[in-house]
Structures are given as structure tokens and as C-alpha cells.
## 1
Amino acid sequence: MSAYIVEGGNPLDGSVRVHGAKNSVLPILAACLLSPEECVIHNCPDLSDVTASLDILRHLGCRVARQGEMVTVDAGAPTGWDVPDNLMREMRSSVIFLGAVLGRMGRADLCAPGGCELGPRPIDLHLAAIRAMGAQIDESGGGLHCTGPLSGADIVLSIPSVGATENIMLAAAAARGTTTITNAAREPEIVDLQTFLRQLGADVRGAGSSVIVIRGGQALHGGEHTVIGDRIVAATYLTAAAAAGGQVEVTGVDYRHLSTVTAVLKEAGCAVKSGPDRVFLHSAPLRGVRPVRTAPYPGFPTDAQAPLMAALARGSGCTVFVENMFESRYRHVDELSRMGADIRVEGRVAVVYGVPRLHAAQVKASDLRGGAALVVAALGAEGESRITGLHHIDRGYQDLEGALSGLGARIRRV
Ligand code: UD1
């Protein structure tokens, strides 16, 4: 079992480049399936979720090659329409293949993704939309057996779900007729997916706003695309510097994607400056801030909640967090408490009373961003912490220890 050994109390200093966004590259890899010609994806991070997506594409009969940060996918002659159980389980967001497989192959067999570490993660909105587009879905035996053909539809989402918006965009690009998504998610990763689909010749407009219109059925061709930088990885590096002290420059990310995170870090006392593709943070002793409420983009991202909480655990004053996106998203709290943090959780609310110092502890990651939060806290704690459960962290961070070591952190994987 691998673990991080983190010796806290060393300020960070230097510049670090973030890798491509996990949440962009996963739907983009699924989109490759829609094109009969080769697609080239640049800035593709080396993450276990990406490896699982590439395995799914191979299983479906695509030719896939990886060279460093460049991945090529040739879906010229796909042979399959099923995603086997083990691959579905390996990556919880594999439901993103539903729209693309159904769109390209006219049918799709997936096992229903179970609950996950963030609490129940329903896919009712995905299924209702695909049904509205004409698909038959048989949910018997724990599986999803879907058959087309698909046609355009007017879809109104009751929640601006990121995954449902992406699935509908993928299915709609292959469907006959026009699809309109109202109350679509507005995340930067949705815009990135639109950019890629347009690169392939799809007619998609409106991503980044609440209404997306897809004129389906265009003949698609190959394309080349560079994935946007990962705003959550950037947020993690910034909170790490806030927790450990020092000054860092984070590059390779659009600063506008981080505006709610940097606003809170400024309120907490840090000096933050932004340029088009970078953010610079100079840390200061942290103080509590006004309530942090997670919300769909452009609100405060739920994925940055845990790392920010870890930073604010050491400091003065008190901060209230309200987690509006997922249940069970405070599993890092017990572990932070082992390090001396004073945090009370009641339902969706967590109250963080800043303490003057955190101490090292043996802690265990139980989800991706909660795991990153433990690293952030350990960097600011006194002594040597040991963090296990690294397979969660590896789903979304490429060589986190290398990136932080480059900034002067004492962290190693054993
Ligand atoms: C995506 C991100 C994840 C991020 C989340 C919210 C990926 C791979 N993952 O997850 O990192 O934390 O957005 O920004 O991009 N919901 C339903 N029914 C559905 C779908 C969703 O009720 O059919 C609910 C969910 O339970 C949740 C809310 O909608 O409460 C938002 O979820 P959603 O935006 O779909 O998140 P994901 O796409 O799963």
C-alpha cells in the first residue's frame, strides 16, 4: 500500500504548471467515439480515470495510442456497444459514455453506476433526457440496455447537471434534428467539450450559457484539440501555498475559471494576482471568511471545498461551509480532526474554527478531493504526516508529489 510522507512547515516557493482538466478530458475522449476519423488530444493528463476511459475506448474497438501528453483515438470501426462492469466500476463517471456509444452505435449496454463515496449519485436526468430523444432504455438486472434511434428534443434539466449536459450534447450531436438543453450546466469543461465537438464538425452553440442548441446529424470528421487546464488542480496548489505559507505562481489555467476560489483566498488574507493563463498567490496568516456555499459554476466549486477547508483549518476566526452539491462530502473532516483541526459538521453545514497549529498524523484519503485536502493540511502541519488511500488522489492529480516537491514541499511517495 503506497502512502505519502509529508513533512509539514516548509513554505512553498516557485512556479508550477497544471495539467489538463480531468473533467474536460473524460467527455472529450467519449466524444472521439462519434467521429469515424482520427482525433488527436493534447494536454491529456496521465490519471487513472483517463487510463480507464482509454481502456473503455479500446474495449469498444477503437485504436488508441498515447505519447506523453498526446493521445490519439481512431474510432474508424468500433465493434462494441457495451461497457463491462469492471470498467464501469473503475471510473464512476463512465456513464458519460452512454450518449456517445448510443449515438454512434445505435445501442448501448452499461451497468448502472452505483452510489459513490460522495453519497448517492443518481443518473435519472441522463436517462430521462436520452428517453426524451427517443431511446428505449431497459433497466432490468442492474444494467442499462439502451437502443436508438435518437432524434432531437427540447430538454429542460431540473438541475444544471454537468454529466447530464455532456451526455445530452454527445447524444444530440449524433441524433437527427435539433436538441435544445435549457438549464444546462455552464462549467468551463462544457465549453471545452463544445469546442472539441465543433472541431469535429458538429453544430453546437451556447455552451457557457444556460441554453445549448445542438443541430445533430452533421457528418463528423477527425480533429485536434488541446484540453483546458485543470481549475481544481490549480485551486489545490493555491490552497496548498495558503496552508504552507510562501508564494507560488500557478500557470496553464484560465484565471477566470478560478474567480470564486481566488476571491475567498483574498478574503482570507492572501495577496492574489492573476494574468490570462496564471495566478500568483502570496500567502499570509489566514483568517476566517464569510460563508462558503458550493454551487454550480460560476459559484464556488464543490471540488475545491475540501482543499480550502484544509487551509482555513489553521488560522484565526471561523468559517461556515455549506455543501449544496453532494451529500457525504465532509469525509475529510474526521481526518483533519486527527491533525488537530476544530471542525463541527451538521448535515450540509461544516463550521471551521481556525486553530493556531495543526500537528502531523496518520490519515487516510477516502475520496479524491478529500485526499487532496489531507495533503494541503499536512503541508501546513508540524511534523511528519502519513497519508494513505492514494488511489483516490491518483484519479485526479498527475504526480502531485512531483509538482509540490518542485515548489519546495517535503513530500514523497513510499
Ligand atoms: C461533475 C464533476 C464533479 C463535480 C460535479 C459538480 C465530472 C467527471 N465530474 O460530476 O467533479 O463535483 O460535476 O460540479 O465532470 N444529479 C441528479 N440526477 C442526475 C444527475 C445529477 O440528481 O441525473 C444531481 C447530483 O446528485 C448532484 C447534482 O445533480 O447533487 C450535480 O451533479 P452533476 O453536475 O451531475 O455532477 P457530475 O456530472 O456527476
## 2
Amino acid sequence: MNVLVATDKPFAAVAVKGISEVIEQAGYKLTLLEKYAEKENLLKAVETADAMIVRSDIIDSEVLEAAKQLKIVVRAGAGYDNIDLDAATAHGVCVMNTPGQNSNAVAELAFGLMVYAVRNLYNGTSGTELKGKKLGIHAYGNVGRNVARIAKGFGMEVYAYDAFVPADVMEKEGIIPVKSAEELYSTCNIVSLHIPATPQTKESINANLVNRLPKGGVLINTARKEVIDETSLLVLMEQRTDLRYMTDVMPAADVKFSEKLAERYFSTPKKMGAQTAEANINAGIAAAHQIVDFLQNGNQRFRVNK
Ligand code: 3PG
């Protein structure tokens, strides 16, 4: 069996070592394709792959068509919007993710961005503190829960909105549940986004919603750029010069955001929430174990396609 690790944004070397140990112990061969400049390279590499580990790499119908031997692809991470699930199902390929394995890393970066925002991008001027501020967590999943845990350490008042998590579950964890996204944005000084990119959430974070933030509001996005309605957010932020937007998922309109919003906007050059050795080890090795368990025992616990 040939297990391909195809990561345009490579894992830390220590994670690759851990993955290769799991794969080799199972008697399989590991092939590594990192920082591939062209899709052609991926199309060639998948031809002989029986299983594959990816990150945000685009696995579309063309890739799946080229992957004649492929049985399973594991997205080492949470969001699987980069994989064409229907095409995978049509090709008889099982798709899995590794939920929770990189969520602490993403949550920590959300705080990195928060502090950076409220300390005015460390430009030397007087900023504000997180302590005592109201933090809104938009979607209370694995990352949202880690954000809540860390927020308590900062002494923040923590609110959350998640249509799929019952209020009493949040209350037990010391979180104040709100009934709608609108209420979350109207209530909180800072909102941290943790919704997945789906047809339903696409461009759902728009000017109407963000305009509800009180004066000096901050929006943190370590989720996906697709959930933002960039056009309306930019217009709003030009009008409301008190708002700030910090992200590790660069908007398509990054240049306009930088030009028009100056220090009220910051984006990392690459998505880096999960870019830690620990997250790479956790998610990468979990992916390797899931592949072995699927190929040897048929375990489909983390399957996300039909
Ligand atoms: C995820 O969905 O797990 C995160 O967005 C991390 O993505 P990455 O593996 O591309 O860094």
C-alpha cells in the first residue's frame, strides 16, 4: 500500500517523522509531496496512491479521477471544504477528517490576533485589555471550546452562539448562550469566528451583522475567508472607522483591505492557525492511524462523505 502525504503547506518535520513511523510499522510505503508548485505534480503523485493525507490541498474531481487506486483520503484537520465529497463518493473513496486535533493551535492564534488588535498592532500607542471584555464565540465546536477555555484565563465574559449546541451544555461550561448570531454581535466587544465554510455559511458574515458590534468592535477570523462578505464588510469598515478585522485567512481583496483600512486590518500571509509542531503531530499522526485502521479493520468512524 502506498500512502501519499500531499501537503502544499508542509507539516513540521517532526510530524512527518511520526506519520512515517505509523505508516511503515503497518508495512506500507510513504510518499511525500510537499510545496508542489503545480497541480500536475499532485495529479501525477496520486496515480499510485492507495491512501492520502492532505491539509487544505484541493482534492477535486480531476484529482480523484487521476487517483485510480485511491481508497481513502484523510484531511489532517477539521474543515473538509477543500475536498469534493460527492466526487469522492462517486469514485468509491472514503473521506475523513481528524476533528479536534489542531483546535488548540487555532484557538491560541485567535488570541494572538486579539491581543495584536487591541494593542494597536504593537505600534507603541496606548491600547486596551481583554480582561473584562465580552467575547463572542461564533460556533461552539472544538476550536470554539478551546477559545472559551483560554478566554476565561484572560478574565473575559464569554458568550457563544451555535444553533447545534444546546444552551445548557454551554451554561455548564460557564458560557453565556445567546439565541442568534445577531444577538452575539450586538452583545460582544470581540467576536471570534469558528463556523465551517458551507453553502449555508458562505458570505454570511456581512455588514448587517458586523455593524451590530459596539464601538471599537473587533472581528477575528481564523475560520475561512469564504464565510465573509468581503464587499459589504469593506464598505462598512470604511464608514465605521472604529471597527477592526484580524484574520489568518487572507481575504481575496487583501490589497483593498490593506489600502483602505491600514492598521484596522491584519492578515497573516498564509493560513497559520494550525501551523504548529503540536497540531501537525496531533492531526498528522491521527490521520495516519485512521488510514491504517481503515485499511486493516474497515474502521470508518471519522468518515464525512456518504
Ligand atoms: C482546519 O480546517 O483544520 C484548519 O483550517 C487548518 O488548516 P491547515 O491544515 O491548512 O492549516
## 3
Amino acid sequence: MAGAKKLFIKTYGCQMNVYDSERMAEAMGASGYVEASSPDDADMILLNTCHIREKAAEKVYSELGRFKPLKAAKPDLKIGVAGCVAQAEGEEIMRRQPMVDLVVGPQSYHRLPAMEARVRSGAKALDTDFPAEDKFDVLNTRPKARRGPTAFLTVQEGCDKFCAFCVVPYTRGAEVSRPATKVLAEARDLVERGVREITLLGQNVNAYHGDGPDGVWSLARLIRALAEIDGLDRIRFTTSHPNDMSDDLIAAHGDCEKLMPYLHLPVQSGSDRILKLMNRKHTAEAYLRLIERIRAARPDILISGDFIVGFPGETEADFNDTMALVESVRYGQCYSFKYSPRPGTPAAERDLVDPEQASDRLARLQALLTQQQREIQDAMVGRTVKVLFERAGRLPGQMAGKSDHLHAVHVAAPEVSAGDLCTVRITESAPNSLAGQLVAA
Ligand code: 5AD
Ligand code: SF4
């Protein structure tokens, strides 16, 4: 596009931010923007920020500082901050970094083109509202460009759970589900554009309760309807809360072939005392029983999770309960974090665990989780799996993709293209990926 303006978006944090950045790029495309390959040749830079853990806001300020020389050299360059730090800090960002032109919270992305027009005229623009209109109605009027084989699709946003450590209920707001008919239309559109695997996103995705043509649909109902779409081969969803793991969703894991055998089900701690202080509203035992029921429905399901160590009040005994829970679940994949106080959350007022002790516990937990992940991955060697290829690998002639269980798989197969779903025999297990050979169909 001759004379098109260029937009550079840097995305931090979760998959929903990745999805949001794509939607913002499309919305700005309608305003004449094309993607810039680096901040240096951009007319607008947008930081899509994350506020979930440590020093997020500080990182944003230091990143902004790095753009100062760019802005000095190119006064027309516009700089914006989006995402959860934008929501949480609002005007403070413009006060601390006067070179920021625009601040936009996650619920106002559909207003970005209008805000861009305002900043082009030299004004500043700030929007951290929770508007009543459906932002997706505006954001999804996109060009029918071809896509890669995998895509995210936001179906639910926000959270009403108020875990004592978490900013999400404040930055993303109350739980809202998108209507099922709109989700289905977006999924069909993605499939027409080449997508074969869709990951449904929501901060509390299994609490999904969107309007369907015949009343309110659960996530399981939505998944079953999506599974009817020809050309869509794989469905995943993330992130789930144990208390919303309904019977119909568990059943879907057993009988819906397109629903992949992978479940991200964070528990955060294995100590009932800490779970209570975290306001998680479930016990360790209830979580373990739930995992048993899910495995009864789908025996080979790979369970992944999130853990926080060093939550205020955590003793060595509480931490040992977490280790015991991990031993009994056997996770295929996990994320674990040292607790960091988030301003405005209830736990931020409480006394911290000694930081060295917290680091030591995190190291012990991560050693166990890494060992489990490796054992489960190693056990794939010799098995035959389906791989959806996504891109060329690092070596010549190599292709890379993901198995049903979300393991990264590399295969020397120059004849394979991105988007091919092939049968592969696993021959090797490396620290973070598997290697295999194509099996003739
Ligand atoms: N400190 C550390 N980890 C946190 N998480 C959320 N809030 C905090 C916090 N204040 C972790 C949880 C959550 C994941 C997305 O991030 O484990 O599941
Ligand atoms: Fe945060 Fe998840 Fe708890 Fe909601 S359920 S408050 S998103 S940790």
C-alpha cells in the first residue's frame, strides 16, 4: 500500500493479549495502517501490556524510555499503551511518560481507530472505560486474509472469582461471555481462511455461558457445535477454574474427538490453608478428585497447571502439601511463579514470605515439575501421534508442529506444508520438544 502508515505492536503476557493485538492490527488496518517490521520504521508504536506479575508497570516505563530517541528523531511518531497496565495505571502513564499519546484499556480496543485520529491531530487520548457495546462487533470486520493453521478465539473475558492475589477481576473486569452465534461465525470465518485448530480463550473460559439460538450455552455445548464445522480438526480451550469444570465438559473430553487431550487446570497450591487464604473456594482433595474424574473420561489427557509459591502465610508444611499434590497429579506441563503483590488486591496487604525461602521453594517445585514434564514427554518415544504442522523448523527440510498433547514435534519432511495434519512416529525426546518420522498415511 503506497504511503501507508506503519504500526508496530509489542505484545506481553497471555494468549488473550496475542488475540487482542491481532484484532487491534486489523482495526488499524481499516485506518490505513500496515504492520511495521520494527519500532524503527513505525509511525505508531503500541505496547500491549500485562499486569499479572512482578514489576510489570516498571517494565513498561523502561520500554517506553527506550523509544525516546525514536520519538525525538521522528516527532510524528505516536506512542500508545494498551492492555492491563493501561487499565490499571490510566492517566498515571501519561503523567510519568509525557511522550505517550494514547492509553487504551482492553475493553475499549474498538475505539482505537477514533483515538488514533485524535492523536494525529495533536491531542492525547485516554480510554479505560468498560463500555456497554460489544467491542468484538466492531473489531471483527476484518479483511479475509489467509491465516496460519492455528488461531486463538476469545469467547469469554474477565473474572468474578477474586482470588486474593490476582489483578484480572480489576483489569479485565467482570465475567462476560460472547454470544455463541458470534463465536461460531468467527470460527467458520477462521476455517475458511485456512485455520484447522482453534484455541478458545477466556480468563475463566470454562465458566462460559453465552447466548445461543435456544438459550444459554455452556462451554461444552459450544465445543460440540464447533466440532460440527467441516475443516476444523482441533479444539482447545484455556484457562479453566476447577470449580467450573462441569459434568458436560468432562464428558466432552471423553466423547468429542476434536477436543484435544490437554487441559490447563491451575490449582495454585496444594495446601487447604493457603487455598483458603487465596480465596480459591476449593480444597486440594476436591481438585484431585476432579482430576480423577477427568482422567476416567479421557485416560491419556495431559494435565497442565499454574502454581504460586511464597503466598503470604505459606509455611514449609504448606509447601510440602503442594509438592505432594504435584506428585499425585503428575503434570505434563506447568507454570510456576513466586508470589508478587499486585496493588489493589487483598493479598497485597499481607506480610511477605522471606524472599530467599520463596526462591528456594520455587526452585524445588520447578525441579519436580520439570522432571514430571520430561518423563511424560519421554514416554511418547515409540508412539504414533498426529501432528499439525505450523512452520519450517530450524534445520533445512525440517518442519515443526504440535501433537494432540501439545508437544512440540520436529520432523525432517520437506514434502510437508504448514497446515498439514500428519501421522508421525516419535523417535526422540529433547528437553522441550520431540522429534519423529512421518508415517505413510
Ligand atoms: N503473583 C504470582 N503469580 C500470579 N499469578 C497471578 N497473579 C499472581 C501474583 N500476584 C499466576 C497464577 C495464574 C497465572 C496466570 O499467573 O498462577 O494462574
Ligand atoms: Fe485471577 Fe484466575 Fe483467580 Fe480469576 S480465577 S481471580 S483470573 S487467578
